[in-house]
Design a protein that fits this description.
This protein is an alpha+beta fold and 361 residues long. It has two domains: 4-231, P-loop containing nucleotide triphosphate hydrolases (Rossmann fold, 3-Layer(aba) Sandwich); 236-360, OB fold (Dihydrolipoamide Acetyltransferase, E2P) (Beta Barrel). 23% of the residues lie in helices and 37% in strands. The chain is built from eight helices and 20 strands. The protein has helices at 42-50, 92-102, 107-120, 136-148, 166-183, 194-200, 218-223, 228-233; strands at 4-13, 16-26, 31-35, 57-62, 65-66, 77-81, 154-158, 186-191, 203-208, 211-216, 238-248, 251-256, 260-265, 275-280, 286-289, 298-309, 313-320, 325-331, 346-351, 357-360. The strands form four sheets. Strands 6-7-8-3-9-10 form a six-stranded mixed β-sheet, with helices on both faces. A hairpin with a 2-residue loop joins strand 1 and strand 2 (16-26). The longest helix has 18 residues, at 166-183.
Length: 361
Amino acid sequence: MALLELKNITRRFGSLEAVKDVSLSIEAGEFFTLLGPSGCGKTTILRMIAGFDAPDEGDILLDGQSLAGVPPEQRPLHTVFQSYALFPHMTVAGNVAFPLEMAGKSAVESRRRVGEALALVHLSDKAGSFPHELSGGQKQRVALARGLVNQPRLLLLDEPLGALDAKLRQEMQVELIALQREVGITFVFVTHAQQEALALSHRIAVMRAGRIEQLDEPVKLYTQPSNRFVADFIGKINLIDVEVTGASKVQLHLSAPGLGPIEATDARPIRAGERGAFALRPELIRVFGKREAADLKNRFEGRVKELLYVGDVTLYKIELANGFVLEALMANAAPGRAKVHEVGDPVAVCWRHDAGVFLRD
């Protein structure tokens, strides 16, 4: 039995359906992420799990028992917010101890649990400090310690890293993964940041307009998106309009208007005449000088329209003969050599026959 089950939940605000007939199951010990753009319904789902809001239809079950009518303070879970929500007049230890005091734990047990929680987040030396004396990352770790001190069945995290700068955010991602693995508590994480979701999660539910578009492991979401929205929302991707001209076993023959034939692979039953998009990640495209050889079936000529140097890689925008612009990522491996090609250079773009995925319209 799954630890948490959402069964056909719907939430309306007036005429707006913020969440539409959503069902999913979350396993014990899982790091599960709700990912999507602002307004897609992910935070509304988190609020319903927490008990701050209630579904108009459907049910939420924890360990097989309905949470309907159970107030937030009686649910065995805790929510960590982006704003930290720390009490400024309390020390770090006082903030972490607060849930234990509300639960009526003894002073002896509270001290023990607070000590354990602060050790988990590497803040034992800050027990006597006040929130204004801490960095953003330290405040976030205090909020996490407070969330874990009561040993909840679920820890709900609502954009908890959103207020941190890029470098600190990345460091906290690593700490979150290690922390979740160590405590073994189920994390339900809400974010709009795709890379963050891919880095942290065991599984991800990609949401749009109140519905789940795809629920899968990060690698499958990235390499096998189910539709254009998921493909475009998760990382950079090239989407080329195509028509199927033939299919046999795993081979797929496509035609792109004004560009020509594209060879691909797909084990699904697909028929000639179907239309859709060919989704191709930039890092799977190789860029050669126009006269350089490439023993790849998919090869098209173009010209470097733009380039963006970002340290370890350079992003090239290649304009093909039909005017379509492909994005390609190339590693900057050679010492002292940032750019392999310059703007205006004639080039050939190539990719393997199994590099992309066909998405039905």
